[in-house]
């Protein structure tokens, strides 16, 4: 490779060891996120998988790691009090969403997806999943205001929590009372917490709801079979380029494949001028809220922890350590 570090050793489920790549020549511009100078300050970088949340938090609080990523938000106050590690809070890093099965079952009918959208209560769902408002934002836009892609098209469909309207749409859509199967997992606890609240809101509107709680590997397997689910709960980070989201692909488990999608998406993909692309993406967002291939619940912050004596690690979603330095 040509990066500042090379792979020295990998032991499955134990660690990945990187060492300085001796042939690397850095750029000279000041470091800015992933751009600019890469000084190769650490002689070695070890990545250690710690799948258990509690173990990861305890290790961060105790100063066992120089950087711990993907921590539960409940750990924020403990990290603030820790003399070893400081919390690193990255606002609006990702967004949870409910993906609809457009290939088969009740969610293949637009009226019933509209009923779900009318019934859902994202304010309550986010509160249950993330607690303090500093950890989440109630926002219909598919990108936060810090992105050029931000727009307000279709926002009126979001955060309705109107069980009477949902019940009317259920009747118009010919809902037969079959259980709405929501596929979720404890792998990401906030997925499950949102699904629990969504179940109550949907039942209030007249849906029968079945929560299918499985491990993440089983979820990713089942969502490939449209006979096994109606909604699955997932999340994504905000990609710099909207075209990279698989949910817009007709071959994804969602199966969004309408003439309108093809026309609007092609217009976006063929636009070359930045302003034109932003305007074209606004039409993509409008169509998402009109046809509802998925329902964006909101946006959430990401919590990590960093050694209080360490500098040089940018506050970004995919941390890099080539300029990291720990003072003695």
UniProtKB/TrEMBL annotation:
The keyword tRNA-binding does not apply. One of its GO terms (molecular function) is peptide transmembrane transporter activity. It holds the Pfam family SBP_bac_5. Keywords: Signal. GO terms for biological process: peptide transport. InterPro entries: SBP_5, SBP_5_dom. Residues 1-249 form the Solute-binding protein family domain. Belongs to the bacterial solute-binding protein 5 family. This is Peptide/nickel transport system substrate-binding protein. It comes from Paraburkholderia diazotrophica. The lineage of its organism: Bacteria, Pseudomonadati, Pseudomonadota, Betaproteobacteria, Burkholderiales.
